[in-house]
């Protein structure tokens, strides 16, 4: 006991230096100050989390910057992935149920899809052309009414005032001819990029439908062998979430088109059917699609039936679009992709702020895929996944009966192999 007390006292022993006149006492080298232990634990924990958080934010920022530089390549590939999620069940039915070759199934599906899209656009364009030709006289009457209102209304304009306005507009056009030409050239290059993107998306779509599983296995085989079963199962769940998203988006676009189309029909707006087709196609393009199709519906109502009918049509368009964005999208989409409605709204808003229209288009599917993948990996879903067990022979079958125990009861063992307490009882 005495030795233990002496050892404890030695730990607190401090050697004091000798006093020197006129100089402060130096700190002894035997004093052991530990700066890390002097810092509060909360401060150390906050520092550890802070630098890790900064590293993650920097990595995400660099990744977003790299992806923005590859937008011309990345956007067509992601569009092709979305269309693949829509068409892959059709290819599966043709290939597995009807026993058609894979190449023929893909060819039939892609040709039918392109024919459906082109025929829909062609029909809508023909109806719009014929309708606009019939509305031309009404448009001229509307312009004359506007001129009459300008002359006789509260503005009381004269021909000289209108001529001055036209002259000022021509002068501005001449002074900004260089800027207008550069804008036209930039639009031409943008159209060239759009055409290149369409061809790349079509090419990618064909090969994703044809060899999607092989492409996925090629990427998975780049990982370590132990990580392949888990990642294969996670990516399969992510792909299922993407397919669900595309199907629900198709349903939402159909409801949007039916709402605006029937609203135009009951209000007597001409070209209601082609207008519904255009709204259906435009619903897949965030922000711009809704803006253009809604403006077209209101313009048709204004030209054909006057400003009162146009205001009612504007109310119908705003009602349908607000219901689609605030009710249908969060509720139906959230259930389909296992995301909370608030997460869907925040994902669309954040994607728009970060990447504009492409960000709004791909924010929800990316969130859906990440949600499915992270949940699968977090709960170790590959342990009881039949797909992983069939592909890799790992995991456990939750529906399999329990295996009988191979251990013998101690009473059935020979006397020399029994435990001591059982052997002594005998």
TrEMBL record:
Membrane topology, as annotated: Multi-pass membrane protein
InterPro entries reported in the protein's UniProt record: AI-2E-like
Annotated spans, Disordered: 389-426
Transmembrane segments: 49-67, 73-91, 103-124, 190-210, 245-269, 275-299, 306-323, 343-370
Key words of the record: Cell membrane, Membrane, Transmembrane, Transmembrane helix, Transport
Compartments, record wording: Cell membrane
Bias-annotated ranges (Basic and acidic residues): 396-426
Family listed: Belongs to the autoinducer-2 exporter (AI-2E) (TC 2.A.86) family.
Protein name: AI-2E family transporter
Taxonomic lineage: Bacteria, Bacillati, Actinomycetota, Actinomycetes, Micrococcales
């Amino acid at each position: 006991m005495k030795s233990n007390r002496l050892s404890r006292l030695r730990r607190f022993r401090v050697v004091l230096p000798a006093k020197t006149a006129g100089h402060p006492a130096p700190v002894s080298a035997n004093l052991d100050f530990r700066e890390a232990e002097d810092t509060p634990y909360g401060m150390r924990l906050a520092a550890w989390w802070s630098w890790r958080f900064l590293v993650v934010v920097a990595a995400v920022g660099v990744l977003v910057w790299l992806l923005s530089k590859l937008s011309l390549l990345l956007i067509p590939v992601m569009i092709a992935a979305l269309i693949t999620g829509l068409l892959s069940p059709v290819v599966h039915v043709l290939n597995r149920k009807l026993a058609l070759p894979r190449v023929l199934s893909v060819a039939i599906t892609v040709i039918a899809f392109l024919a459906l899209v082109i025929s829909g656009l062609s029909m809508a364009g023909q109806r719009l052309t014929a309708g606009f030709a019939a509305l031309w006289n009404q448009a001229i009457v509307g312009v004359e009414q506007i001129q009459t209102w300008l002359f006789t209304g509260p503005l009381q304009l004269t021909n000289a005032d209108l001529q001055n306005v036209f002259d000022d507009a021509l002068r501005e056009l001449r002074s900004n001819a260089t800027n207008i030409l550069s804008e036209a050239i930039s639009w031409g290059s943008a159209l060239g990029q759009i055409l290149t993107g369409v061809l790349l998306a079509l090419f990618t779509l064909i090969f994703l439908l044809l060899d999607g599983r092989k492409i996925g296995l090629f990427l998975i085989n780049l990982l370590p062998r132990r990580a392949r079963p888990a990642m294969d199962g996670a990516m399969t769940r992510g792909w299922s979430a993407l397919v669900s998203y595309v199907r629900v988006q198709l349903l939402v676009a159909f409801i949007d088109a039916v709402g605006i189309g029937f609203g135009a029909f009951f209000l007597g707006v001409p070209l209601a059917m082609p207008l519904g087709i255009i709204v259906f196609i435009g619903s897949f393009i965030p922000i711009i699609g809704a803006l253009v199709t809604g403006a077209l519906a209101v313009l048709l109502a204004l030209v054909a039936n006057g400003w009162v009918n146009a205001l009612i049509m504007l109310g119908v368009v705003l009602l349908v679009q607000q219901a689609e964005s605030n009710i249908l999208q969060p509720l139906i989409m959230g259930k389909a992709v296992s995301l909370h409605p608030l997460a869907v709204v925040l994902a669309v808003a954040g994607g728009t702020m970060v990447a504009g229209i492409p960000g709004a288009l791909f924010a929800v599917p990316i969130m859906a895929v990440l949600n499915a993948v992270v949940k699968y990996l977090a709960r170790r879903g590959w342990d009881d996944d039949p797909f992983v067990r069939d592909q890799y022979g790992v995991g456990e079958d939750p529906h399999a009966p329990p295996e009988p125990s191979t251990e013998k009861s101690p009473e059935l063992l020979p006397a020399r192999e029994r435990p001591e307490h059982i052997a002594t009882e005998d």
